[in-house]
Amino acid sequence: MADLVKDKPQKHEKKVEKLPTDGTRSKEKAGRAKDPAITAPGVDEQGDDQGTAGMMENTYQLGPSGQFPVSAVSNILKEEITNTLQEEKYEAQRCQDLTLTLCEGIRNRVKELLIPRYKTVVLVHIGQLNGQGMQISSRCLWDPSCDTFTSYSFKNTSVFCSGTVYGVYFE
């Protein structure tokens, strides 16, 4: 019985693959294709360059080259909300669609400003105006030296709207 226990490998023992001293892998693994995650991007297995025009090099830039244009974004936010909701009456399904339309329109116009290395987040809330109160809050990881936001509130006879655009620097 004691001999049988000694002959069986223990469960906790790990098999260790021994590499040849010349740094190459064993023969059975040499024929296998290379892992694409290990090869350099833009270079195939033979080492030929596939055109790395789309690749960008590191800039090692630690801060923004310019500030987020709060006034321009604020004007876009006001124009989009006011022009869209000026004569609107509250209808639940219509306001749900308007929220998506406003977010896309604001985001597209802010993207046209070509603000480098800033991510923009657009939030729009639309509701029925019945004299009620409402508090909207948000939380995020924030660097006050370069991250910022702008907000705008709108009311007409039956609809209220609150829109916020966050500009968060992307390192």
TrEMBL record:
The lineage of its organism: Eukaryota, Metazoa, Chordata, Craniata, Vertebrata. One of its GO terms (biological process) is microtubule-based movement. It comes from Fundulus heteroclitus. Residues 1-35 have a biased composition (Basic and acidic residues). It comes from the Eukaryota. GO terms for cellular component: cytoplasm; cytoplasmic dynein complex. This is Dynein light chain Tctex-type family member 5. It holds the Pfam family Tctex-1. Belongs to the dynein light chain Tctex-type family. Residues 1-52 are annotated as: Disordered. InterPro entries: Tctex-1-like, Tctex-1-like_sf. GO terms for molecular function: dynein intermediate chain binding.
